[in-house]
Write a structure and sequence with these properties.
By secondary structure, the chain is of the alpha+beta class. The chain has one domain. It has three helices and seven strands. The strands form two sheets. Strands 1, 2, 3, 6 and 7 form a five-stranded antiparallel beta sheet that branches. A two-stranded antiparallel ribbon has the order 4-5. The longest helix has 16 residues. It is rod-shaped and about 65 Å long. The chain starts with a helix and ends in a 12-residue tail after the last strand. The C terminus is likely disordered.
């Protein structure tokens, strides 16, 4: 019985907290629309909406140099802004901002050189 309650409570809470996502306040709706216009991709994630920048900023890395191999350029770090939007009872959205950093594995931002 305890296991059933442990499984049911998160589902009930998730169902209640995500209800606002289907019917957000005008402030929340406008915020999400503004982020989409600025190039963010927004998706519902349980109890919040996550908006991630579609086109990252490139953070160039310094080349690593040694006497034996010369200088080898390092891959760029791709930096994405991410916002997590929640809507409390007041209807005024709350924002949490953070950055996602990924190493550019496409090879577009760096090339290997030996001198």
């Amino acid at each position: 019985m305890k296991k059933l309650l442990c499984l049911a409570i998160p589902l009930l809470v998730a169902g209640c907290t995500s209800a606002w996502i289907a019917n957000p306040s005008p402030s929340t709706r406008n915020l999400v629309n503004d982020l989409r216009l600025e190039g963010f991709e927004c998706n519902a994630r349980g109890s919040y909406i996550e908006c991630v920048q579609a086109e990252p900023m490139r953070n160039k890395q310094a080349a690593k140099c040694s006497a034996g191999h010369g200088c080898v350029e390092q891959p760029d770090i791709l930096v994405f802004n991410r916002y997590r939007i929640q809507q409390p009872e007041s209807g005024i959205p709350t924002l949490k901002h953070d950055l996602i950093e990924k190493v550019d594995t496409s090879g577009q931002g760096a090339s290997t050189q030996q001198k």
